[in-house]
Amino acid sequence: MRLSVLTVALVASAAPAAAQSLAARVASAPEGRVQFSFAARESVCGNGRTFISIGSNTYIGSYTRGGEGTAQDRCEPGPIRVVLERADGSVIGVETYVGPLPSPQAGVTDLGRVRTRDAAEYLLSLASKLDGRPGRDAILPASIADSADVAPGLLAIARDRDRPRDTRRSALSWLARVSGEPASSRRAADAMVGIARDGAEHAAVRQQGLATLARLENGAGVPALIALSRQAGDDAWLAKEAMDALARSGDPRAREHLRSVVQRADAPEPVLAVAIRGLSREYATARDAALLREIYPKLQGERTRQSVLTSIAEMGGTENARWLLTVARSMAEKQSVRRQALSAASRAGITAAELVRLYADADQELRELLLARYAESGERVAIDRLMAVARSDEDRTLRRRAIQHLSRVDDPRAKALLQELAARQ
User: Where are the domains of the chain?
Assistant: First the structure.
């Protein structure tokens, strides 16, 4: 009988503590720092002190790689440990750690392990009301909490214009990571479209909304981005920014849309330029390069033509480099375009020796451009050609140009030649 009475008494005394909210427990803790821990998602690990790893490509903080005389930091799974810095009863700092828990620390009140859902809700409540960095820093631990549905809370923060801009952008960025379920992704996509379309919203927040659309799981935001990129008549800025977000996606639908846009004669030049540049990024293929080379003669705007030259240079390869040389050789092109094509050919892989061989069959304008490229390359074969032109080219103007370039070259042979030429006068 005594045992039963004792058990009931223990349960009764523990009930108020269990029912007390995490916010209340933090508020009632002694002055100083307060910490609590909770479960992390499977893809999250850290060393408990200096770094957190999330998934396969996100690292926060710093870690030791290991080497002679050093130890390798191990990335261990959770828990998440949050340390709150407080002053006069208010939270003024939020620090997040993942990995092994440290030994008890003086001046830190440890609330121990708490329910993941309670921790995520409390942290999002901080993000929804704290200004500056503390509010923004509260989003990270909430977003990596295990099995916590934080998408609605992040959406609310993202939509709240009373929140600092950086906090809203952080909420948008994390939203793409936590909206994995189809229904959640659709809700997030609808919300991002609303933010992106809102002309009264700050441009940085609208851009983050578009970037979040591009990163939603399973390409859930791609159809919306394609639709937004076609709104040039209603909002040219939005169309261009939506196209830029698509250009950063490897989704096959996004790639096909970019290809269709660059072939449209009626596409606005800012949108067309972004689509062209988008084709040359990390998902570029030989097919994309061929398409850009094909459309180049049809382009009327200088901006789009320059975009093609830059894109082809970034793709590189023998075929692209040779094509750039054909543009540089064309006397029908403006001098500025020929100069850019020559520079682009060098970036695409044309060697200094090949540029030197080009001089013999080049027209006057191209020869002047080549002399500048020789000086910029600084390679011995190029400097040799500059020196040869300065000594004995039949064209006096080209000799002067070569001498001017040599005067800016840091090469003892060039300096000696200049002294020799000066002594002849």
Answer: 1-63+70-177, 361-425
